[in-house]
């Protein structure tokens, strides 16, 4: 996988702003945030810092002091899936929200301010896949990638790849690069020639209980060890591991059923 940030961070440097359209954050809203934090702390070694308060009982996960993700309480009046949600950077979240609507998507939450951290909206594409939009202020988003415990990639599973990708091209300015020499219906979304996410079309193979959805990949140092820990911590393993061009992967769930994929890059 590639660095999904607008710019890579070097040791000793301050975090930099993500390029508009680049994945910049992943967030999980659950019924029991304290239990979820214990699960991910044990699995990834995360520590947590509370806030922003406008998002309710919400905390940002840290790796060696660098923010990588967020976990909060799912409000009872918001009917959202228990799922990791990727956020795409925007210079103007209100304008992006209007683009979402004009392209056939839905804005379910916001746009709203998250204290001095930034401004956000939670949206869905025309097929129903949920994603977020983040306009950074004090909080720039994910501060490190490519290390164990950090998000590495995001992939949309939907009915037809190119059709779904057109929405993200229109809203975020992505370009589409089809996979070469494969029968798989998959395309890559890029910004200025740099891959930032993938779209995988599975047609009628899409599970009805899931519908179109985004999946976040997290880097691990040892896939077998991580897979061994998941059920001990209350999660589940979904299928066998798979080896691809970017490394070995396996999809799992946390105790509340939020799906994510573990990735061990080639050594």
From TrEMBL:
It holds the Pfam family Glyoxalase. PROSITE patterns: VOC. Signal peptide: none annotated. InterPro entries: Anthracycline_SecMetBiosynth (IPR052164), Glyas_Bleomycin-R_OHBP_Dase (IPR029068), Glyas_Fos-R_dOase_dom (IPR004360), Glyoxalase_6 (IPR041581), VOC_core (IPR037523). Residues 22-136, 150-265 form the VOC domain. CDD domains: SgaA_N_like (cd07247). This is VOC family protein.
